[in-house]
Structure formats: structure tokens, C-alpha cells
Model the fold of this input.
Amino acid sequence: MNHLQTKTIDLRKGQPEAKQKEILDYFEKTWEIDEKLYTQLKSDEVFYHRGDPLRHVLIFYLGHTAVFFINKLLLAKLIDTRINPEFESMFAIGVDEMSWDDLNEKHYNWPSVDAVRDYRNKAKQVVTDVIHQAPLTLPITWDDPFWIIMMGIEHERIHLETSSVLIRQLPLEEVVSGLFGKICNEYGAAPQNELRPVSGATITLGKPFDHSLYGWDNEYGNYVEKVADFKASQMLVSNGEYFHFILDGGYHTQSYWTEEGWNWRTYKQAQMPLFWRSDGETYRLRLVAEEIAMPWNWPVEVNYLEAKAFCNWKSAKEGKSFRLPTEAEWIRLEDLCQVPDELEWHVAPGNINLEHVASPCPVDRFRMGDFYDVIGNVWQWTETPISGYPGFKVHLMYDDFSTPTFDGKHNLIKGGSWISTGNEATRHARYAFRRHFYQHAGFRYVESETPLVIDNDEYETDVEVANSCETNWGDTFATAPNFSQQIAQIIVEKLRKQTIRRVLDLNANTGRLAFELAAHFPDITALDFSARFIRMPIQLQEKGFMRYIVKDEGELVFYRDVVLSSTELDKGKNNILFMQADANNLKAIYSGYDLIIVSNLLEELRNPVLFLQHIHERVNEQGWLIITSTYEWSEQQTNRESWPGGFKQDGESVTSFEGIQAILDKHFTLEEPRFDIPLILRKSSRLTEQRLAEVSVWQKKQ
Amino acid sequence: MNHLQTKTIDLRKGQPEAKQKEILDYFEKTWEIDEKLYTQLKSDEVFYHRGDPLRHVLIFYLGHTAVFFINKLLLAKLIDTRINPEFESMFAIGVDEMSWDDLNEKHYNWPSVDAVRDYRNKAKQVVTDVIHQAPLTLPITWDDPFWIIMMGIEHERIHLETSSVLIRQLPLEEVVSGLFGKICNEYGAAPQNELRPVSGATITLGKPFDHSLYGWDNEYGNYVEKVADFKASQMLVSNGEYFHFILDGGYHTQSYWTEEGWNWRTYKQAQMPLFWRSDGETYRLRLVAEEIAMPWNWPVEVNYLEAKAFCNWKSAKEGKSFRLPTEAEWIRLEDLCQVPDELEWHVAPGNINLEHVASPCPVDRFRMGDFYDVIGNVWQWTETPISGYPGFKVHLMYDDFSTPTFDGKHNLIKGGSWISTGNEATRHARYAFRRHFYQHAGFRYVESETPLVIDNDEYETDVEVANSCETNWGDTFATAPNFSQQIAQIIVEKLRKQTIRRVLDLNANTGRLAFELAAHFPDITALDFSARFIRMPIQLQEKGFMRYIVKDEGELVFYRDVVLSSTELDKGKNNILFMQADANNLKAIYSGYDLIIVSNLLEELRNPVLFLQHIHERVNEQGWLIITSTYEWSEQQTNRESWPGGFKQDGESVTSFEGIQAILDKHFTLEEPRFDIPLILRKSSRLTEQRLAEVSVWQKKQ
Done:
């Protein structure tokens, strides 16, 4: 296997020609190692068996890594001809348990293994040609052809690992051992695990966009988190340590399990980890292609749900708070142990990158600082569901790699396993699986009194809210100046010489106007009728970012991340109080304002007339009232009798503005002239609505 | 009464100062004559009685003509203060049986007659001041202050007549005779009526916008109609002539009546005209303030429904086709008899303008050419429901004068009566009332074999159709070039050197594209799925104009008239065949086209994929296919499986265009580049939708 050892490529340093050769070599070795994996199947017939009822038969994965290359090269227009359209559809998708994965075998008529091998050979030639012919300039960045080549290679490396897990789930008699590297031969009793302190720190997560290594889109961005002091187990939990949990009835005590965990355990009738075997007295462990006597000093391999149950059991036993580390805690541990990154090591500091053995090894074999196995051996489950970091952008050539997992149901695993290579073995690697999923993964526990807060950073999909976010915060498609920005500019210019302290924004919506004003005025109250809407600016204020989905065409969407700090609007953010409130039934506390802004609100009220009749009560003397409205009254929203205008009265047209003026005249002086500002609401890439709002400025009489 | 004789004012000729005096004099006399009318009420108490259960009590009309002045002067900003806001609401509306007329007396607390008289005096002074102070330049046109003054005066003159009808409906003991001019004292047997021929001609209806007399908005425009030869009764139908119909059981024979007429007769249990009185043997006639022995030689006064029943009775008796004249036939008669217009006569040629008597007079008293009473005596019902002429524009200072009557339910009366003065006595006067309504109106019958075609020129109010009309034909609010016009330009430029004869527009909509193309190509088939839509361009093609309503704000609307000839698009109109058809299920005849245009249609089809798979069958070899689409698929419209794209397939995004191209590639060559054109859909004055359509051009392979 040694001749197949590789590292992922530095895409910044070096000479183009040499880099081309380096990438070709990386590609060829990846291809070879992938095919070598399947030599462990006893016969071609086994390709039509399933390792996991929720996964495809193995032939799919043999074809998939080749087909992926071709589909992406086509998409990137690096090639223009298909090799085999049927294969390129059949082998395209079916990796995660996604709704669009069709795993009904009746829908497939799998080809022969030889046909797939033949296809692979052709595909390999196509990729080789592309590597020879595509223009290579350094650095290689997101939009370069060679980024797509790297994408195909790193994709194949992921499947090297996930397919090995599927093979590990085949019946023993269907596999042949000894053909994919040597397994570890060090067995023994479990060593005593101990907690070691980890000092807290403020750490920055996220890979810079100019990083020298290939990365998946979810790795990029910038996220700062304060990690409190905690203690972590020195070693990964071994089979021996975990056995105590089993012996203590852990798999039969519901209280140790999360609800999701207990549902899984009950459904699966799990009694022990998936790869454990027992005759009731002795225990054995299934590896990829063999079964061995239980190596008690190797790390236990479990899913998140089991790892979590173990922690809860341990907490209950010891009266302390044990759990898995968060992503940030894991990074903190890695920092502290000064673990070198893939390109920095001469020999891997842990059981990783296929550099040592082709299986796990004892949990006390690879020491890094005060701890063992900070990387390598088996992946380590974390408490953190994956989501993009603030600033996350989808890579358009593989736009369903990450976002479908940003659903709160996929937890990050960190650190890599013995078979993690390429991107998987890098510091920034972020892979996530459903919590009941099996990989070559175990865990390290931490003890911490800091309450675990799991953010749900899902993309806002509520169409109205998301469209409002885009109107307020999106600029990608902007064809006209931002509405809230314009209103804010007008206010700031007009009231420059006034003493304005307290400002009330009565239609906060997704918050843009409030943030704009907060840079200029010290005290902003921003109210919205709907919690659906107001939670977005609150999230911006608290977390500094928010995310939403906007429609492209049909079912295709764009993912948007708004990072407050990148808009320069975070300066005054603490000047704003966002609250939910009904402008037609305001609490008394919302009074005494120097400026009240009623922005496109009247048309949303049940009773705009009543609102207008009383709004003077909340404005300070000589204070200001700014109204913007499209006068788009609808009877669903506003009783016909409560429209201020837009109808005939005594035979004459009463415009909405005339009606408003008639009410406000008693307490306010109108500043002429009024003017119009358009608000653009984007509903899809080809459908936008323009609302032309009239702006009127009123000053309260003395 | 002689000192109160007036004529409406020439608004073009003369000197400003003299004109001001002339108008003041006209105003003062109008005011005086109006008040004189009410001297016929026996006491002030009678002001609180109703002449007609569907009209207000009389006090309303005393106040109304004054309040109207003040409301209009305010609206026109000629004054800025109200005299009495309560009066100016209470006396504002309630003239026709409109949905917004509140005739529930419980909702009114009518003031004293003295208070109203006091108000009138104040109002008179305000108007007098305005006449003195407002700037007067000649000619006086629609937008001038003095147009509003004239509007108030002519409005008062209308009510002079309508109030006289209401007084005529009061109990005899509540009125005093002899105080409003002398009634005719010529009574006798009915003269023998005869039919006289009228030669047909092509006549032009509509008052030019630069006419020298004040006119209501419905008088203006331009409408050409071909009038066939017909015969008309020499005289109006007299009481004596009509009596035969009664004696013959006319009021009890349903077959003589229209459905609407019979419903009215049954509801009212009518046995004879409203103003006839009978003790079973003798007949008397109620005038405004007295009852006289039936003057058999005076014109009968009936509503349209009774007049029509008489014609049907007469047709049945004589086996000929009798009916009322159309508006155009009446004009033709007037032309033929060379009846002078109001400013042209020294003495009125008929019983009109209060110049002769204060009642009807014998039908054989005023001869004009071969006929009698072409104008004057009593109004003459026509078969024509009122609508605006092509080019009609609403006068914004009185925008509910005409349009509410353009509903097919208000028939025109022509010719004026003994009490018609001012505008009412002019050639162009067009007043219309519900067909069951009573005025000082009777009729002349015509005999004609030409089938009566009643156009329904209502304003299109179907929101989708009207908005489409505005998008295709409106330019008032246009903020971007017209979509259809742009497509047509592109087609004409691109295919300039091609031989294009037969063109198929598969989404005719409201027809703009077809009319644009018809100027360049000899044979256009324009199909639309919906009859709602296709009838609009068909109307344009057949009648040369169409009308629709677009939303301003709330319930306020704009009225739009499209006159094809004013757009220069009528040249090729006969090149177009408009038909209703389903593009997803086209008849075989729609084949053999040199050019097919699929404009924003795919997204409306049940099955765009099926459509695309077969469209090549309808294009000639080397012919063209032009597709524009927003790719806005909705599952309501199009089954998800029939979307050409806009979804993920095998893990990759398939755009709509890619899906379309995959289908068309076999038979068509794509012309690059594609490009975008925006289509602006105006939903109200402040709400527009922009649909950005992608245009792709395809040529059929040989």
C-alpha cells in the first residue's frame, strides 16, 4: 500500500506543469486505491448485495465515483460528450438518505460489473485527458477547471471510506481479508482513561477563502466562538470502557438515551455496537474484511446516539456533566495539542491517511500533547449539527453537497479515521452524518458545566420571510437602491440638525431600517407584528448572521448568508431593541419618541384610521412622523370602513393620502413635497414585484 | 319667464371680460330659474316629501345643486374652505339608483328649508366671487377654472328638468300651478301619424374636443356608423296613437314586452303611462303642477320599456318591423332635417329651452323638414344604451358622471324636452336613464329591416384581462418599452431577409403582438386558450376600439380606451385570424407555419414537455420558432413531471432552458445568444410586477 500513499495537493505553490503532474498522480492513485478497496469482495456477485438496507448495492459505488467525475466535468463544460447517459443517470445519486434518493431496487436494472469496469476505464481516460489539456494557472481557485478535478478526486476519497463501512456490513463470508493493507495486531486490556483540563479560549472557526488546500464549501467562512474551560478524556473511549455501559444495562435504560436515541435503539433492538459480535460470553469485533477477538484497548465505534447515551450514563453514575465535545471544543483541543496539518507532517502523527494500519489501533498508541488520538484512529462525534459558517457560499458545481445536511439532523464528526485521506485528513475537514449513522467513528467525552447551546442555523425557507430578507439584505440581484437604506439616508439628512434620541420603527420586518438608523441614533425601538419576521433581525443582532433561501426557477434555489459585520451595520446594533408588538394595540411604554417611522405598515393594519388618530400620543412635541405607504388596501387585511382613503365619498374621490392628511392635520404639519421610493420584492430570478411607496414627513405641532 | 331665457355659452369666441359677465349672467339666471321651480310646492313641508320612492325627498335637490358647486370648486382647488361640511356631505350624492346612493331616510336628518336657502345664498356668493376672481382665458377648455363653473351651471340645469319630473310625481294637492311659465293650451284629437323614408348614410358621432360649447365627457370622441335606409314616424307618438295600444290590451299581453319590460309592468302593475289618470271612462293627464283633460294630440310620455312594447305591438299588428331609432338613426334624422343647433337659432325651432311653453304641446305643432319635433317637446327614447365613444376620456373633476351608466342598462334619450335648456338643448347632448325611468320623454318609431345590433361597450373589469390590456396596450404608466412591441421588432429585424408568410402566435392574449406583426407579415394566426382574453383583440379588430378599467388605489380606478387607428396598428388588422385554441391540443389545421411564436406560454401549459416534443410538426422546414419564457412553473398549472427543467435530476440542477434545449435539439438549431426582455404587469398605480422573459430563437433543421 505504501506506493499509494498520498497527500492532498497544495493549490497555491509550485509551477503549473509540475502541478499538473502532481494532480494527475494524485488522481491515478486515488483511482487505484478506490478499486483496490473492492478487491475485498469475494466475487463480482457480491457487488449486487447491500451492506446497509438504507444504502445502494455496492455496484452503485463502483460506478458512482467515475460517473461523478463525468457529470461534474460536463456541468463545468470541461467536456461536452457523455460516455454513457444511462450510467450517468443510474450512478448519479443515492448517497445520503435524501428524499430524492431512489433506493427502490426494482427501479434499477444494474449492469454487469465488467460493464462498470469498462465504464471506469473510459472515464479514467477522459479525466486524464482533461488533466492534460485543461489550462492550469496557480493558484487554483473555486472557479478553475482543476478545482473540479480536485472535487472529483476528493469525492472519490470520501467514498473510499464510506464504501469501506458498507463492506464492513457485508456478511463475513462475502469478503476476503488481507487485500487492503494490514490490520493492527496490537490487542490488550483497555487502558485507564482520565480527564485532563483544557483551558478555554476564543477561537475562530472556518477556512479562509484563500487557503492553499481544496475544501468543500461548508469549510469556508468565519465564525468566532468563546470556548469555556472544560475537561476532556485523554483517550477515545475504548471498547473496554464502553463495555461497562453495556454491562450496566445501558442499552436497556431509557433514561440514558435521548428520545431520538431511544427510538433508534428500540427500532433496531440494539444490544451493543453494530460491529460487535457476541455469543453471550465472548465478544468479537468485525473489521472491514475479518472478525477478530474483541480488542478492548481499541476505540469503540458507535453512532452519536450511543455515544450520547454513554455520556448520560456516566453523568448519572458520577453525578457530573459528561457530554461529547462541540466542534469548537474539538478545535480548541487540537490547537492546544499543536497537531500538525496534513501537509505539515512527515509521518502522520496518528492512525490516519492509511499511513500506519488498515484498521483502528489501541487508544493509547498515538499521543499528541497531553492527549491521544486528537486526530486519526476513528472519527469523533461532536455535539454540533453541521451548518455553514457565517459567509457560507454554495459551490455551484456541487450545490447539494452541504446544504441538505444543514437541517439540524447531521452532526459533525472530526479528526478522521485510519482510512481518512486527502481532504478528510485535513484540519478543516467537516463531515457530518445523521446521528444514527455508522462510520469508522467513536468518541471522546468531555466534562463541562457550561450549558450546551445548539444553534439551529437552518436556512430560512418561509417564502415571505426569506423574500423580505432578500429585499432588505440581498444585493445580488438589486436593480434599484435598497429601500430601507434610502429611507434611512433621507431621515439622517433631513433630521441632521434636530435632536433625535428615541426612534420607533413600527414595521421592523427583517430589520434593515433599524440597523441603518442605529448607526446614527442612540435608541431605536423596532417592532414587528410577526415573530416570524422579527426573529431574523434578532438573530442578526445576537449571532451576527442569518441565512435564507431564495427561489431561482422551479425548484432550484439560491442560498444566502448575511453577515452583519460585512455590511458595516454592526456598529450600532446594541442601540436597537427588537420586540414583537401590534401597532394597532401598542403598549403604553412605546411612547415619548422623537421620531416614529411607519414604513409600509398602514396597509398591513386592521385599522389604519384608528392608528393614525392616536399616533400623535406617542410622538414628542415637535417630534417627527414619517410614513411610507403604497396605499394597497385589501379587505382581507383591513376592514373597508378603516381605509383612510382610496374610495369615493360623497361622490368625490378621496385618495389615501387625502384621508391620511385629514386625520393627521390636527396634530401634525406636513412637510412638502412628498416623494416616491420603490421597494423591489424579488420572488424568483425572473419575477419581481415593485411597490412604489409614497413618503410623507410630518412634524408634530406644539 | 322671458327674462330668464338663456343659451349655453360659446367658450371660444369673445373677449375675456365680456365672457366673464356672460357666464355670471348665465349662472345667476340658472340659479334663479332653479329656485323658481320650487315655488310650485304648496308649502315648505312638501320639501320633505318624495316624488319617487327611488329618489330623495325634494329638499335634497334644493341643496344638491348648490353643494355640487362648492364640492367641485374645492376639488378643483378654486376655493379652499367649506361653507358647511355636514351639508356638503349630506347633499352630495343620490341622483341615480347607484349602489353608493344611500336613500334610507333614517340615515338623514334633513335641515330646515330656511337653512338650505341660507346655504344656497352663501354658495351663490362664493360662486359669484370665483367668477369674478378666477382667471379667464379663451378658449375655455377642460382644465380651466371656468369649465368647472360651467359644469356647475349645466349640472343645475339638468336638475331643473329632473326635479320637475319629481314634482310632477307629487300629489296634486301639494303643488301650485301657474308659477313656472304657461302651459300649452292647444288640445285636440291626435293627428294621423305616417312613416316617412330616411335615406341611409355613413355618419360620424361624437363631439370634437375643440368644440365651442361645454360638454359632458361622454359627448366627446369619434365613432363612425353606417346607417341603412329606414322609415321614421313623422311625428312623435301621441297620447291618442298610444291609446290604441292600451285599448288593444297592450299592458296585459306579455308577448309585446321584453323580459325586463314585463318584469317592470308586473311589479308596478302598470295599466297606462305614469302621468295618465283615468276614472275608467275619461282620461286626464298630470302635468308638473296641474291635471288637465287628456290632450290626445300631445306626445305620450312613457319609459323605454313601454315604448318598446308599443313598437312590438305595432309590429305584430302590421307584420312589419317597428322599433325605436338608434342613436345614429336619430342623428341621421336630425342631419336630414337640418335642425339648427342651440347657438344657431334665433327662436327655438321646437318646444325646447323654455322658449315656447312650460309643458308639452301638440305633436304636429313644430315641423322640421319632413318631420315634426326632431328636437323638443319631449325627449325621445332610443334603442342605444349609452357608452363612451372610442377615445372617451373621463373628466377627472366629475369622474362618476358617465362611467357608472356605461353598463348596458342606461338607454340614451335624444332631442330634449320643453324644459331642456343649456347643454341639454344642444345637438351633442347625450343623456341616458335606466329603461324603466320616467323623464319628460316619449318616442318616435322607425320601421327598418336592418337587424338591431346592440353593442355592449362596457369597460372590461375582469382584473386579469384588464391588466393584460394595460400591459399590452397601455402606455400611460409605461416605465419600460412594450414587451410585444420589442418582440415584434426583434422578429422583423431578424427575419427581414427570410420569406415569412404564415405566422402563428400561440399566446395571443390581448393581441398586441399579432397586431404588431400584422403590419409586416401577410398571414397571422393568433390563438389563445381563453375566450376571456381573445375577445378583446377581436373587438379591436372588428370595432376598432376596446375599453378596460385599471386600478389606481383602493377602489379608485382609471378608465382606458384603446383606439386601434390612433396606434397605427390597424393597417394590417385583416391579416390576423384570432381564434380560441388549446396549444396543448391543437387542431391539425394549425400547421405549415414559417414562424411560430411561443410567448410566455410554456409556463401556462398543462404539459410544456409534450408541447415542445411536437411543435416541430407545425413549423415548415427551415422555419422559425421563437420562445419567450419566465420559466415560472407552478404545480397548479403544470404537473411537476411535465416541467422541462427547474429541478434537480441525478443530483444536478437542470435549468428550464437546458430541459427545453434537450427536447428541441433534435429538430431545431438554437441561435445564440439568448437574451432577456422584461414584461411589466401593472396591478395598481403603486404595484407592478416585472416578468423577465428569456427569448430563444430556433430554426428548424432541414
Observations:
- DSSP finds 15 helices and 26 strands in chain B.
- Chain B touches chain A through 41 residues (CB under 8 Å).
